[in-house]
Design brief:
The complex is a heterodimer of chains A (about 280) and B (about 475). Chain A has about 280 residues and is of the alpha/beta class. Chain A contains 10 helices and 10 strands. Chain B has 2 domains: about 260 residues, Aldehyde Dehydrogenase, Chain A, domain 1 (3-Layer(aba) Sandwich), CATH 3.40.605.10; about 180 residues, Aldehyde Dehydrogenase, Chain A, domain 2. In chain B, the strands form 5 sheets. Chain B has a 7-stranded mixed sheet with strand order 13-14-15-12-11-16-17, sandwiched between helices. A 6-stranded mixed sheet of chain B has the order 8-7-6-9-10-18, sandwiched between helices. Chain B has a two-stranded antiparallel ribbon with strand order 1-2. Classes of the chains: A alpha/beta (about 280), B alpha/beta (about 475).
Chain lengths: ~280, ~475
């Protein structure tokens, strides 16, 4: 009889899979109450490390052409498809869904990722503008990424909610620090393995597993994070994040599971450029 | 030969300032419930212009009730086309009474008549015209095909462009079907109160626009009133953060236009004479009381001496004095408090080792005045390089390479505006792309237009005003 080789579930920072520097972990149980895994319990220092990595990646990702970003994100969907079975079995274990329900969620998640990947080189066309100002000036407005966005993944559908959170952030040219749902961390960890084996540059997505109740206040008060998608936070924690986030006027939003360019635009800023017309 | 200009003052006969003003609530001027009056003075001579009412909690409550009733019974039921007609009427009346507004604004604010006449008032009218045309086209505003207004909007505006900031706020709010409770800044309430008369002349339904005067305490009452659905604020980053904190736990929408420390970047190939004009316009327009002012001059090291020589010569020609004189370039500082703040920051510049320069100019004995000033030997750590001075004070910093210019320009928690001066098109776009600022002026500065979105990155604010982007901030809707 062969003994299975079990996986250690770790963080994903800067393209690598470190343990928490704190050495902490926590226990996760499956839907039936059996032990499932000891994922890392991310510390404040892990978050700081993630932010340093994200800030470095942000500059590069923002400058990557929209067409190229779109291709890279599509590549992520390709690799997700290849990992479909692994996602399905983890969803079954974590959420207690049937195989067909789990399969449906994975398919939806991949299709949603593809949908957002196509937005990269269209968002500025639809939501930018040339503005007919009076006077002899050429004037245009373009949406630009904020930089580093913290994503608190929702808790309903472990994989689909991750995609709802991460994909629009990346499509807008931002980088994401993903705070995995604490009860369903396996989907987030497997998704990091997808990121690591796609062409996504290191640091464009960092994934921390741990307790939202701890991580929320650290993310909210970190002065080098520009925005937060708080969709996965309960309303009391979300309001405390809004409060702490005012120190650097973070853009903080919360969404129901909507598929909309609104989620991309929520973490973009409009820049308007003027230039005189003349000879 | 004497080339001095003779005084050319604009007549004040056109304005009729009442000795005291009530609040404008429900279409009428009504007296306050318990509010005291405070003096509003002309900052150019410290003479008392009028007495303004300090709006109380009961007053704000009445105003919100009037706005709510007007929203429910009239304004939200009216078609966009009909709403638009009221905005067109207001735009026309502002144009008809433009000179009266210009003179009153100069007296109340201290800014030169040349600016109120040529910039503030025409742009205010243009904002109503522009938004009037949006009122029946909201399904094209980019927030889905069923856009809805927020309801009652609380608006708090600053003293640097009193009527223009009112127009930036009121025009899009009304076009989108919201009703308004607006508080002008306590030192500059007069044109807002004259605007109330314009609303009456335009027969705007009662309660659609309510104006409650007062200081920050009145503003706080508006922000915290449970009947207000959205807040739009223009002012300091410090107060903006307080407002952002106070809406936590509520469903109130919030847009903020806050402070700035704009970098005006001069590359070595810039057309030098145009650039000097742009630098002057960037920092000395409106006494430097401009959130998007080009208050940090980033000049490429090899042209610094030449640029500063020309800048000194040009600054010597700036005429400081009577705001109502048609030849005046730089008027009065808006208040004693602001003058104190400018002096304190300028003194800190000297104390921290920067060198101060101002042209010789005689300042009037009465009123609040500060000469056009620049500082050299400024380090990025100096307060005058980091803090918003909101006065006619420029900090000169040098750079060697384009990437150093970007790094220095972005080295601030603010992100409102920036300027670029160069002859090379590709360098303009390269620089514009890298600047973390909401408005970038290339080979120009301080241009504004109702069609052009305005607003900041980072701690300079949330949201945009103007253009489709600004309109969308007054609408709720799914994309």
């Amino acid at each position: 009889m062969r003994i299975d080789v079990k996986k250690t579930y770790k963080l994903f920072i800067g393209g690598e899979f470190p343990r928490s520097e704190s050495g902490r972990s926590y226990e996760v149980y499956d839907a039936k109450g059996n032990f499932l895994a000891n994922p890392a319990l991310a510390s404040r220092k892990d978050l700081r490390d993630a932010v340093v990595s994200s800030r470095g990646a942000a500059e590069k990702w923002e400058k990557t052409s929209a067409f190229n970003r779109s291709q890279i994100l599509y590549r992520v969907a390709e690799v997700m498809q290849g990992r479909a079975e692994q996602f399905v079995s983890e969803i079954i274990a974590q959420e207690g869904l049937t195989k067909s329900q789990a399969k449906k969620q994975v398919e939806k998640a991949i299709d949603l990722w593809v949908w957002y990947s196509g937005w990269c080189d269209k968002i500025a066309t639809i939501y930018g503008a040339t503005n007919p100002v009076s006077g002899s000036f050429y004037n245009f407005t373009i949406p630009e990424p904020l930089g580093v966005v913290g994503v608190f993944a929702g808790g309903g559908d472990s994989l689909l909610d991750l995609v709802h959170g991460i994909a629009p952030v990346l499509a807008g040219g931002n980088v994401a620090i993903t705070l995995a749902n604490q009860n369903f961390p396996l989907s987030a960890i497997t998704l990091s393995e997808v990121f690591a084996t796609s062409d996504l540059p290191a640091g464009v997505v960092n994934v921390l597993t741990g307790k939202h109740s701890e991580l929320a206040s650290w993310v909210a008060s970190h002065m080098d994070i520009d925005g937060i998608d708080g969709s996965g936070l309960d309303s009391q924690v979300y309001e405390s994040v809004r409060l702490a986030g005012t120190d650097n006027l973070k853009r903080i939003k919360k969404f129901s599971s909507t598929q909309s360019p609104e989620r991309i635009l929520a973490f973009m800023e409009s820049k308007t450029v003027w230039h005189p017309i003349g000879i | 030969m004497n080339f001095e200009y003779s005084p050319a003052p604009e007549s004040i006969a056109i304005v009729d300032i009442k000795p005291e003003y009530n609040l404008f609530i429900g279409g009428k001027f009504v007296s306050s419930k318990g509010g005291k009056r405070f003096e509003s003075i002309n900052p150019a001579n410290e003479e008392v212009l009028s007495h303004i009412t300090q709006g109380t909690s009961a007053d704000v409550d009445r105003a919100v009730k009037a706005a709510t009733e007007a929203y429910k019974k009239i304004w939200s039921k009216m078609s966009g086309a009909e709403r638009g007609k009221y905005l067109f009427r207001i735009a026309r009346i502002l144009q008809e009474r433009a000179r009266e507004f210009a003179v009153l604004e100069s007296m109340d604010n201290g800014k030169p008549i040349r600016e109120t006449r040529d910039t503030d008032i025409p742009l205010a009218a243009a904002h109503f015209f522009y938004h009037a045309g949006w009122a029946d086209k909201l399904e094209y505003a980019g927030v889905g095909d069923k856009p809805k207004p927020h309801g009652v909007v609380g608006q708090i505006i600053p003293w640097n462009f009193p009527l223009l900031m009112l127009a930036w706020k009121v025009a899009p709010a009304l076009a989108t079907g919201n009703t308004v409770v607006l508080k002008p800044a306590e030192t500059t309430s007069l044109t807002a109160l004259l605007f109330a008369e314009v609303c009456q002349q335009a027969e705007l339904p009662s309660g659609v626009v309510n104006i409650v005067t007062g200081d920050g305490k009145t503003g706080e009452l508006i922000v915290n009133h449970p009947g207000v659905n959205k807040i739009a604020f223009t002012g300091s980053t410090e107060v903006g953060k307080l407002i952002a904190r106070s809406v936590v736990g509520t469903k109130k929408a919030l847009t903020l236009e806050l402070g700035g420390k704009g970098a005006n970047i001069i590359f070595e190939d810039a057309p030098i004479d145009e650039t000097v004009e742009g630098v002057i316009n960037g920092i000395y327009f409106n006494q430097g009381h401009v959130c998007c002012a080009g208050s940090r001059l980033l000049v490429q090291e090899n042209i610094k001496e030449e640029l500063l020589e020309k800048l000194k010569r040009r600054m010597s020609m700036i005429r400081v004095g009577d705001p109502l004189d048609k030849n005046t370039d730089l008027g009065a500082i808006n208040s004693r408090a602001q003058l104190t703040k400018i002096r304190e920051l300028a003194d800190s510049g000297e104390a921290e080792g920067a060198q101060r320069w101002s042209p010789e100019c005689s300042l009037p004995n009465k009123g609040f005045w500060f000469p056009p000033t620049f500082f050299t030997s400024v380090s990025q750590a100096h307060r005058i390089a980091r803090e918003e001075i909101f006065g006619p004070v420029l900090s000169v910093i040098t750079f060697r390479t384009p990437s150093e210019a970007i790094e220095k320009a972005n080295n601030t928690p603010y992100g409102l505006s920036a300027g670029i001066w160069t002859d090379k098109g590709s360098r303009i776009l390269w620089t514009a792309q890298r600047l973390k600022a909401g408005v970038v002026w290339a080979n120009t500065f301080n241009k504004f237009d109702p069609a052009s979105p305005f607003g900041g990155y980072k701690e300079s604010g949330w949201g945009r005003e103007g253009g489709r982007h600004g309109l969308a901030a007054y609408l709720r809707g799914e994309h």
